[in-house]
Amino acid sequence: MTLISGLLLLLEPKPSAPLSGLTLMSAEIDVQPEERLFASQADHGWQSIVIHDTGMSYGSADSLNNIHASVGKDGLAHHFVINNGTEKQDGLIEIGYRWQRQESGAFLDELAAEDDAELQRIRWFNNNGIGIAVVGDLDRKSMTGKQMDELVWLVKQLQERYSIPATEVYVQVGSGRQGITPRFQEARFRQQLLRINTQASTE
């Protein structure tokens, strides 16, 4: 009974957390995008980057915020959302409230853990990883060119700022538990990442 009650409480809809309303594109000229990207509170000290697709052909930070709030995640679970043009401009990067507040993400589901070791791993990534959601169902359709361009730009900005090596950039797109859908151009993506040295970054 306790478990069932807990699950029902978790699934009870909650008010959506406020979205930051901040967006950016790498080509913006009114203000340096990286200035807007890092115009937040004291850095959390991030150590990795985790990329997911939303599993839906349409969406935006607004709709994801509502979905995540309805399953007990206190609103948008990721730090960033990269749009595909269905609800917001193609390639538009939306900055979530967790990034503005430099708070841990909730993009990996603790309830999915099969044992304590996996639970600890999930918690580590949620606490130390920057979560990026790419709008789309990559099992059925590839990312748009603008999405890929903005994803590469964003990841490189984050790598440089926090000295995150390419080995700590994780791609979990598609329905496979561990695998990456072939619709994600992983080789092209990885070739563009920064090669981070101990104290400096070089392309």
Helical content stands at: 25-40%
Main sheet summary: 6 strands, mixed
Q: Give the overall shape.
A: globular
What CATH architecture would you give?
Answer: 3-Layer(aba) Sandwich
Mean pLDDT: 85
Question: Class, according to the CATH hierarchy?
Answer: Alpha Beta
Structural class: alpha/beta
What is the CATH third-level topology name?
Lysozyme-like
Radius of gyration: 17 Å
Query: How many discrete structural domains?
Result: 1
Task: Provide the succession of SSEs.
Answer: HEHEHEEHHEHEHEE
Unreliable stretches: 1-16
Please report the distance between the alpha carbons of the first and last residues.
55 Å
- CATH homologous superfamily? Peptidoglycan recognition protein-like
Number of helices: 7
Assess the beta-strand content as a share of residues: 5-15%
Going across the biggest sheet, name each strand in turn. Answer: 1-4-3-5-2-6
- Number of extended strands: 8
Explain what this protein looks like in three dimensions.
The structure is a single chain. The protein has a 6-stranded mixed beta sheet. A two-stranded antiparallel sheet has the order 7-8. It has one domain: Lysozyme-like, CATH 3.40.80. Strand 7 (195-196) and strand 8 form a beta hairpin. 33% of the residues lie in helices and 14% in strands. The relative contact order is 0.18. By secondary structure, the protein is an alpha/beta fold.
